[in-house]
Specification:
The chain has 16 helices and 16 strands. The longest helix has 18 residues.
């Protein structure tokens, strides 16, 4: 059974998972999270279950995390690890997982598509040599006796995941062939039970993944018991008190002049950064103005700004460069002291990713996707502790999405089982 705990940040999802595991000590668990610091939290707060974190520093396992993971699973140990490491589970590992009846807890949305830079000619060589089969644009490994070097990395990944080709038009009108690793459904179905801890699930790629493969799931909520512990519940009985006051806690900067740069529907998107050098320079001046003039006197260590990592150098400047946090960061508590935020992106799903989902019958909601990414980033800040925050968000589209969400959420909307 797949259960999705779709609840706003601060509701106690991770705490409920910890309670669940501590109350089911006889079961086997694998807990995956984006960052290792959260894996350490699981080890500390489920001490009696002796969670292990796979390592790439053990000579016995050839300094390979994958080999250490395989050994831990064969021993039936509880494991806390990262999303990235989890994606490399082999068929043999999954067989052991089925035999032990492991339960899986996925903390936050997990990417199910990863672009892989390979040339079509190399793929053809692997096909001609009889190692790979092309099944309508999906490439599968059919031989496992390769001992060479040139295709070692490719075949290593293909033991765990299929490679999918996406043909897209490039900037000159030609065809660009892109390749993506796609998670196999067995990575989910091999577990006795699966819990997904997230928020705004329907805008996320893991939701689309379950829909593509017709994997049934049900929504669950959180309940705070009389003993003060959070537990999973059939209904979402518990909502943090601060949620009712979001409109009074999130102060969105209303400056017509500085916001005008984001009036166009596509302004501040990744392609906008690439094609509008003068406008990017104007945005940099706006950010500088907020960081050093409008918020003059505010502690520098309470400021934070988010942008596409590949373009951050174009906007960074005196007084705020070191407070950068990539626009899609989630599942970390390291920035909970930040009160003055600048979110200077306009998020759209990668065109090739979107086409992949559409090819599989999924219509992507771009606004839901953008909102889920933005809200996660904002909740890295002091708002997660119920403190007021101040936010510069120049994209008109993103600002409208956030304002609408705040209004609906503070009135009890955006909850599960609506």
């Amino acid at each position: 059974m797949i259960r999705v705990c779709d609840a706003i940040m601060g509701t106690g999802k991770s705490s409920a998972a910890i309670t669940y595991m501590n109350e089911h000590k006889d079961e086997k668990f694998i807990y995956i999270t984006p960052y290792l610091d959260e894996a350490n939290r699981i080890k500390e707060q489920c001490a009696e279950m002796h969670f292990m974190e796979p390592s790439n520093k053990i000579e016995e396992f050839n300094f390979k995390k994958s080999e250490h993971t395989a050994a831990l699973i064969k021993q039936g140990r509880n494991i806390a690890t990262t999303h990235q490491a989890f994606k490399m589970y082999s068929d043999e590992m999954l067989e052991d997982i089925r035999n032990y009846g492991y339960r899986l807890i996925i903390d936050e949305n997990m990417d199910v598509l990863e672009r892989y830079d390979y040339h079509i000619d190399d793929i053809k060589i692997a096909i001609d040599a009889g190692y790979v089969e092309d099944v309508n644009g999906t490439y599968k490994l059919i031989r496992d006796d390769y001992n060479g070097v040139a295709f070692r990395e490719l075949f290593k990944f293909m033991k765990c995941r299929d490679l999918v080709r996406m043909d897209c038009k490039d900037g000159t009108g030609g065809i660009e062939r892109l390749f993506y690793w796609v998670l196999p459904p067995s990575l989910i179905t091999s577990f006795k039970d699966v819990f997904i801890l997230t928020y705004l699930f329907e805008g996320q790629c893991l939701h689309h993944f379950l829909e593509i493969y017709n994997l049934p799931y049900e929504y669950i909520g959180i309940n705070k018991g009389e003993d003060g512990k959070f537990r999973f519940s059939d209904c979402n009985w518990y909502t943090p008190e601060y949620v009712k006051n979001l409109g009074k806690m999130i102060h969105i900067m209303d400056n017509e002049k500085l916001n005008s740069i984001g009036d166009d529907i596509n302004a501040l998107s990744m392609s906008w950064y690439d094609k509008n050098e003068e406008e990017v320079e104007r945005l940099k001046r706006n950010v500088y103005n907020y960081a050093n003039n409008i918020w003059r006197g505010m502690p520098s260590d309470e400021k934070m700004w988010g942008c596409f990592k590949s373009y951050s150098h174009k906007v960074s400047g005196k007084g705020y460069t070191k407070s950068f946090l990539t626009f899609n960061t989630k599942a970390t508590n390291k920035y909970r002291d930040k009160h003055y935020l600048m979110y200077i992106v306009n998020i759209f799903m990668n065109v090739s990713d979107k086409r992949f989902y559409q090819r599989n019958g999924i219509e992507v909601d771009e606004d839901a996707y953008a909102l889920s990414v933005m809200v996660q980033w904002i909740w890295r800040s002091a708002i997660r502790d119920g403190d007021e925050i101040y936010l510069y968000i120049p994209s008109s589209r993103m600002r409208t999405l956030l304002l609408d969400w705040i209004e609906k959420t503070s009135k009890g909307g955006n909850r599960i089982n609506e």
